[in-house]
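Example for tutorial group B:
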């Protein structure tokens, strides 16, 4: 048994689960502490395997099918329905028994949880500034109802849309509504824009400070979308608990090194304040892989996505986001003239931001910072963020950046649970905690191969054979879930 709060492994462990929780952990030299087989007890023979806590992805978005818009879902209902049924299983296939949707609502959570099986799922309320990111992407006809937790600053109260009341969108009112709706965290944003947009409104310091005070009074943490030096400094100055995204947009060009002096100063503050930090390196690769001709032929895709969806991605309609991203790059190279819209799509060059986020992540790992495992799946409407598999990609990006397997294991279990105030229930293998567990063929503290050698996934005491969770096995007998 390997649990992140313990430096060693507990050998010959017998773990007893009842009513979805771990009720006892014992050990003997012979393993005789295992309860006998009987009509109402099932024993899993795990000799030679490793028992670990289920993994936590603390940054997902579950309302969307990667690569599809709502309009495209309506145009292809059969493909969309099969994808929505499979996506929860794909997270479980890669060992993710808990997910945190960082921008959701109770209605969206009910839709997600209507599937079975499904990982344990919690949500943050998305406190976007009115007309700021990501509200700017939502059509104005539905914008103000689609994001119920939007923030309105006092200076904007004079020009509100019809039916919108400023008093219902103060930091205090927004946090109270989130808390009543069951949110376990607040997600807010500091983003001036990207692509052709760079002038989006961002919150004032007093607004973020008030949001943090209200959230902390309610006992919930605040996460800030922040991928630039300006944004991360803003979050540190105003007391956020978690910075959601790595540091890849930097104005400081005083050094040719990937890790500039200005970046190092920000990261030193992250370390000193013990602020949680989600690198989300795979976000950048998820854009690049839209232009990788081999990506849709990756044999692992058929384990996490229905074949009909993969085939649709190959169509001209399924390549829509590839064309949008490539067209924006082409325009930026040719200039902003609208006539440049006829140019062929071009692959974005993300070499510099990738180097920055890898250098920043390595620095934090070397200094034992509070790294949190999150993937931002899907970070955009890109099919190159496949559920579950995207986390496998992120783990390898972290390893390549200098994070050890042991650090990745902790980031995806106990550290995530602590940051989201869920450690009383999940994140370790301890008596009294929820029975979200994995049986692996290898020690995850030593190798990432352990996460591709999962034998059994346990969610709340329900036992799933890993192969039965795969998309290309969905038409077979299924996962053989057993309720204790």
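The residue assignment follows.
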């Amino acid at each position: 048994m390997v649990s992140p709060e313990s430096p060693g492994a507990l050998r010959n462990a017998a773990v007893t689960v009842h009513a979805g929780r771990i009720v006892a952990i014992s050990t003997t030299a012979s393993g005789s502490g295992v309860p006998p087989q009987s009509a109402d007890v099932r024993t899993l023979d795990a000799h030679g395997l490793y028992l670990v806590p289920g993994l936590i992805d603390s940054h997902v978005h579950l309302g969307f099918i990667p690569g599809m818009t709502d309009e495209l879902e309506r145009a292809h209902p059969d493909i969309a329905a099969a994808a929505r049924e499979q996506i929860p299983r794909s997270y479980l296939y890669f060992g993710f028994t808990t997910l945190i949707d960082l921008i959701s609502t109770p209605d969206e959570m009910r839709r997600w949880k209507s599937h079975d099986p499904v990982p344990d799922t919690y949500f943050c309320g998305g406190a976007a500034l009115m007309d700021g990111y990501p509200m700017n992407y939502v059509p104005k006809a539905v914008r103000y109802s689609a994001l119920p937790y939007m923030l309105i600053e006092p200076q904007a109260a004079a020009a509100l849309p019809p039916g919108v009341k400023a008093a219902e969108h103060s930091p205090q009112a927004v946090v109270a509504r989130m808390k009543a709706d069951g949110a376990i965290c607040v997600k807010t944003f500091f983003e001036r824009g990207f692509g052709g947009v760079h002038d989006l409104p961002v919150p004032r310091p007093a607004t973020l400070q008030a949001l943090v005070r209200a959230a902390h009074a309610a006992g919930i943490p605040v996460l800030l979308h922040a991928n630039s030096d300006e944004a991360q400094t803003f979050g540190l100055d105003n007391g956020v608990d978690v910075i959601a995204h790595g540091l890849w947009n930097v104005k400081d060009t005083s050094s040719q090194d990937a890790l500039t002096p200005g970046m190092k100063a920000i990261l030193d503050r992250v370390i000193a304040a013990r602020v949680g930090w989600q690198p989300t390196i795979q976000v950048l690769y998820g854009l690049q892989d839209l232009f990788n001709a081999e990506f849709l032929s990756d044999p692992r895709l058929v384990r996490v996505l229905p074949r009909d969806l993969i085939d649709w991605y190959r169509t001209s309609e399924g390549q829509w986001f590839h064309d949008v991203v490539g067209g924006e790059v082409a325009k930026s190279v040719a200039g902003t003239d609208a006539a440049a819209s006829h140019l062929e799509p071009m692959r974005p060059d993300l070499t510099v931001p990738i180097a920055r986020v890898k250098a920043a992540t390595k620095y934090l790992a070397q200094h034992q910072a509070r790294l949190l495992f999150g993937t931002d799946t899907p970070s955009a409407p890109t099919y190159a963020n496949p559920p579950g598999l995207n986390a496998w990609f992120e783990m390898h990006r972290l390893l390549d950046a200098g994070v050890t397997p042991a650090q990745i294991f902790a980031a995806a279990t106990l550290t995530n649970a602590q940051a989201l105030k869920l450690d009383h229930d999940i994140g370790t293998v301890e008596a009294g905690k929820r029975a979200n567990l994995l049986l692996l063929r290898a020690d995850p503290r030593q190798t990432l191969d352990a996460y591709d050698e999962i034998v059994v996934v346990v969610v709340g005491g329900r036992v799933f054979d890993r192969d039965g969770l795969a998309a290309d096995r969905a038409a077979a007998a299924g996962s053989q879930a057993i309720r204790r």
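Residues 53-316+351-427 form a domain with the TIM Barrel fold (CATH 3.20.20.140). Compare this with the pattern of hydrophobic and polar residues in the output above.
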